[in-house]
Amino acid sequence: MKKHIIIIALSAMALTACDKDLQIEPQQSISEDLALSDDGKIKKVLNGAYDALSAGSFLGGDLLLYSELLAADGEIRWEGTYNQPREVWNKNILVTNSFVRDSWTRGYDIINIANNILSAIDVVNDADKNRVKGEALFLRGTALFELVRLFALPYSDGSAATNLGVPIVLIPTRAITEESYVPRNTVAAVYAQVINDLTEAESLLPAKNGFYAQKSAAAAILSRVYLQQEDYPGARDAANRVIGYNEFVLASSYAAAFNSNNSREGIFQIVVSSQDGANDMHLYWSITKYGGRTGDVTILPKHLNLYTPGDARLAFFYQGEGNTEGSGSFRSGKWKMQYMNLSIVRLAEMYLTRAEANFRLGTSVGDDPLDDVNLIRTTHGGLPELGSLTLADILLERKLELAHEGHAIHDAKRLKLTVDGHAYNAPKLVLPIPQREVDASKGALVQNPGYGG
Amino acid sequence: MRKLRKLFVMGVLLLIANTTLAQSKLVKGKVSDAIDGSPIAGATIIAKGTTVATVTEPDGTFEFSVPSSVSTLVISFIGFTTLELPVTADLDNIRLEASQSALSEVVVVGFGTKIKKDLTGNIARVKGEEIAYTPVANFNQALQGRAAGVFVESNSGRVGEGVKVRVRGSGSISASNSPLYVIDGIPIAESANSGSSLPDINFNDVESFEILKDASAAAIYGSRAANGVVLITTKQGKAGATRINVNAQYGFNKPTNNREFLNAQQYVELFREAAINADNIDGINPLDPDEYEDSWLEYVENRFTRYSGWSDWRNRETNTNWEKLAYNDKSRTKIVDVNAQGGNDKTRFYISGSVSDQDGILINNFFQRVSGRVNVDHEVSKKVNIGVNFGLTRTKTNRITLDNGFQNPLQMIALAPITPTHDQNGNLYNTPVTTYYNGLLEIDNVKRSSVNFRNLGNVYLNYKIIDHLVFKTELGLDIQNQTDNYYGGPLSLTGASINGFGSADWYKSVNYNTNNYFNYNKTFGSSHDLDLTAGMSFQKYESERAWVEGQDFPVNELNRLASAGEITGGSSTGTQRSFLSYFARAGYKFADKYLLNLSGRIDGSSAFGLDSRYGFFPAVSAGWILSNENFLADSKALSFLKLRASWGLTGNADGFGDFAHLGLWAGAKYNGTSGLTPTQLPNPLLKWEKSDQYDIGVDFGFFGNRITGELDYYNRLTRDLIYNVPIPGTSGFTTQTLNIGSMSNKGVELVINANIITGKAFSWTTGVNISYNRNKIEKLDGDQKKIPGNDGRYLNSLIVGESIGVFYGPKYAGVDPANGDALWYQEDGKTTTNDYNEAGDFVVGNPNPDYIAGFNNTVKFKGFDLAFLFQGVFGNQIQNGAGGFMSTGADWFDNQTIDQLRRWQKPGDITDVPQARFYYSNGTGASSRYVYDGTYIRLKTLTLGYSLPRSITDRLKMSSIRAYVAGVNLLTFTKYPGWDPEVNSDYRAGNRNQGGDFYSAPQIKSVTFGLTLGF
């Protein structure tokens, strides 16, 4: 009987397991409290925010692609198999377009990370506090600007104070509450927030910061914001400041400005390597031979005919299909090679913005517009200098110099051009609010006109 | 705690050493058929109250030692009524009566066994022998159509891949909907790094499958049981002369169906027409030479020139049938199985070895399995039994890219029929001559393999503490080691431009489990049977993964990463999950008439936060065997009647993230340095999904149980559904894991089995099962009525009042006869529009079937045996997600389905295919246009065999020789216009995402010749 007691006692013990066997910690993730707990970690979060910004669905290419496809106007054609970019090219975008959806959610992912950094800025070392805060504001302002100019009617249509922009979110999300269902702010309110963020960023950022945002980057984006608002003094002064910071130099030739990982002309670049960073412009605009798809975007004669013969920028286009080069459709040389940095703003743009704004205002802040334009023409185009200048000359120079870099639809909207038969402020030239977002917002988000909303 | 467990096992072992060996005595006799007196070979004789057993020799005789304490023998043989005789009876003349039913079968239940007639819950049993030697890779495919309420669907006709199994419908939106698989008492891991881990199991080793369907049967598995439990019991040896079985098979495989696409003539005609139509919309007449330049027609014809390579499309020089090229026309199946079993009164064994080599029907797809098993049971003493069940498997799968990859061979059907496969030098064409990647390049330029080593084993010890009280302890290990190697040469899709791409991916999972429990089983007086079980179990899953990838390889022959010029990526990850459970069950039977069962289980899971970590899962069931009551005892026709009712609560804690309740930040990478980003919002309140299930059933038998059956009604309500609820993207997140809403499954199941003819020379048994299930989402988050899922390609959505994953989206209204525009219905359901964005949303289909059924027959005539199974699925719809590519009226250069020739061409045409308009997306958005009826009936298996008479086998000193031919999927009856109605495209298959077809391979139709030898 004693034996039985022993065995029952032993088995009773076997039946008792400890609760701690159920306590398992994740191996690839850490908790929120820990992530924002000290200086070192917040700087890692800041790098994480750049990672989000560099996603293919955002500045890693798709936003630039949308801009070019929306303003195609017979100058480029989408020939790829993906129907999402094709819908953008066709100006027949379904509200379920998954590319558009991912760009929207990515934008707010960046904003949320930036808000997290700003909420914990007090634990950053004093020496770095301004820089980290400046970068977070730069990231938030830039993301918000990209969203408002793609997902809302243009600022230039005169009703910015009433037109719906995108939601402004300034606090990090820790839980989903009633406040999480945010409505859209007006276009004007969003622009005001963008200018606030970028202006403060410019004041806080250092002059040099490697591939990360520095004063020049903030000022460069600011010049775009003002230009979009047709605020020429603002655009001129911001562009002039960038040139004045003297951190960047024009590439000695047009080709040298692209397909590079150490361009001295790219004021803000998405860093791309085989390990990280994305370059969807390469993916869709290059050909299989260079690691792209089969050549999804074709440059059409209407665009090529805009160049003066002998323009180095014309010669920069190449012919290629799939695995072969030298024949077939024309491709942009800017996005030819794989794993190359993607310049979001180049110094050339600053000269052209300053020239245009000076010309319109009749001023010569920084330099005479003719000098600025000629600088670009000669350095990058290899063309003779112009003796005199018209606004049309400046705008053409800008179009050719900055072709296929994501400026097309934004310039068309501020210049009130008609593209593919659509007026500059036509609803079809605005991306739809993703259906997923409308559904998830419990009625807070109003769909754009022209999308069944 | 682990230390304690070790101590315990040592203690038990010490006790064993102290016990003395028992005395034994010799028993012998002979068993024969009561009808004609012929000897019965292979009948089992068990010494009652022990595990000592033997089987009869070919002449019906047996001889074995039994413990001297044994007073009764149990004699059983399949198809005969089990007999109990005192050891003192006349054993030389034991006569077995042919049994008329399965009611006396022993059924495995969780942590024990029961006689079928005493069950109060619903358990479907499929005997291993019914499906043995079916030439499929995954045992679930062999179970298809054999059990009521068990819906089985292969994703596609690829070999060695996942199979969807739903027991009584879907109970969850985000968590697992698959049943829990338990092999010899050990819950196994179903998932693998790539593909499914279930094909690792050689089901020829399986004695029986028991599918626990209702809550009372399954609740002993508590939180793991909401989707049913499949108990798999492997074969155990029987004492007696060693018996060896050899089976060899050789088979031929083909697709069940071909789908027709345009030939070169039709392709050129349709695309030119589409281009002209597009030009006309732009106000251009491309047939006017002045307007031809820059027209769509010029564009299309230039592409024709490009796509036709060396040949001339204008005179249709090339007419390639790309679909045909996607299939392996030399697809074969080769299987060899050997097993041996035997033993004596102390030790019994079953060992087996098997080699299976199955080609898929698609090029580059095959599955190989080498497996072995050893099951040994040893009686240490009268009180102690120990044993081991140990299976080792190596599978190698040539797993082709998922359905949505260009490398999927069936995507070749998108290539133009005017494109030649090779250039004039005999090299395969690729882009830009082929429209997309030429999948034939995969054959010589890509190497891929997925090799999995699976070790499934458990050791156990049973200790009889006192009479009627047994303590059982078992420790199980389920280890997977999977390696996926991939290499794509410079000519392949993945290796182009980077001079070859290679990757290696190692995955290891260890799942260990221990069960420790007491069984108490005693009859009090003459009519009170008590059966008690209580114990605990602990289980932990651990998995690790490491992968590396690189590019730039010197030559194709050097395709390991060691030769890569650049390593471009690599990572390692790991995760764990554990369960701690306590369970108890009490069964009571009074006078063989009244049955009562109570069970309860407390489960703790690491997947939940501290406040909701434990759940309690009770069940109660009762049965009343009316046929044992006096008022029915005299009924001539009715031989058995039992009413059953049960209720139970089961849970679900599988299939969503291991840490879904935590707020998480994970690593990120930018500019060559690491970063951190938020990945998940916290939800500390996350808790188990719980299913309430009621079941009312009746079991019946007529005419001496020649006809038996079951009729069940069930109602299962699952609450606190775990779901990744879409939240506004403005939060920085897109979903949050919450408990929302509820879902119900109500259904009826009918099973009828009949022994129509039971003669010795001629017999015919038949079985029918029909099940109806209605799945319904009862509630979603708060007031939310729907979560639409139209992603531009598929429409699977979640809508209150509808079944999970219904197709919800634009309803196609056909073609405007005036202009050929595609039309959809607006929100009012009447007005039509040609603007897709203006279309209303409607429920346009349901991927969940209303009915599933099986009809099974076995006929034996002298040496011949014939078995066939028809299986059917009724009332579901399928959406062709590739419709927007392959049935678009020549919208882009993808080859088109033949039905596109029905397009609208001139005003007044009445058709359902819109005007062909190149690049104008006329009607190509996801809508009911691409939703089809998925009902089908299929001749699932057909086997015809012949066994040589004993007079010949005896002379050859063999116990049996059988030759057979087996067919799988020989006939399919369906209206589905796609390849095969049994489809669920692999790249997206999930709980909500069902019924999608996307260049998915049709099922395999096979004919296999086999030979089985018994020694």
CATH topology of the domain at 107-238 in chain B: Ferric Hydroxamate Uptake Protein, Chain A, domain 1
CATH class of chain A: Mainly Alpha
Number of domains of chain A: 1
Query: Span from first to last CA of chain A?
Result: 81 Å
**Biggest pleated sheet of chain A:** 2 strands, antiparallel
CATH architecture of chain A: Alpha Horseshoe
CATH architecture of the domain at 107-238 in chain B: Beta Complex
Strand count, sense and barrel status of the largest sheet of chain B are: 22 strands, antiparallel, barrel
Shape of chain A: globular
Round the Cα radius of gyration of chain B to an integer and report it: 31 Å
The share of residues in extended strands of chain A comes to: 5-15%
Arithmetic mean pLDDT of chain B = 90
Quick gist of this model?
The complex is a heterodimer of chains A (453) and B (1015). Chain A has helices at 2-14, 32-35, 39-53, 62-70, 83-90, 98-119, 126-151, 187-204, 215-228, 232-245, 280-285, 301-304, 312-315, 347-361, 369-381, 391-401, 408-414, 435-440, and strands at residues 29-31, 76-78, 266-270, 297-299, 318-321, 324-331, 342-346. Chain A has 453 residues and is mainly alpha-helical.
What does this molecule look like?
The complex is a heterodimer of chains A (453) and B (1015). In chain A, the strands form three sheets. In chain A, strands 2-4 form a two-stranded antiparallel ribbon. The termini of chain A are far apart. Chain A has 453 residues and is mainly alpha-helical. Chain A has a single domain, classed as Serine Threonine Protein Phosphatase 5, Tetratricopeptide repeat (Alpha Horseshoe), CATH 1.25.40. The radius of gyration of chain A is 25 Å and the shape is globular. Helices cover 46% and strands 7% of the residues of chain A. Chain A has 18 helices and seven strands. In chain A, helix 9 runs antiparallel to helix 10 (232-245), helix 14 runs antiparallel to helix 15 and helix 14 packs antiparallel against helix 16. By secondary structure, chain B is mainly beta. Among the domains of chain B are: 24-99, Immunoglobulin-like; 107-238, Ferric Hydroxamate Uptake Protein, Chain A, domain 1, CATH 2.170.130.10. Helix content of chain B is 9%, strand content 48%. Chain B starts with a helix and ends with a strand. In chain B, 53% of the residues are buried. Residues 1-22 of chain B have low confidence and may be disordered. At the A-B interface, helix 1, strand 1, helix 2, helix 3 and helix 5 of A face helix 1, strand 22, strand 25, strand 26 and strand 30 of B. Strand 1 of chain A pairs antiparallel with strand 30 (664-670) of chain B, so a sheet runs across the interface.
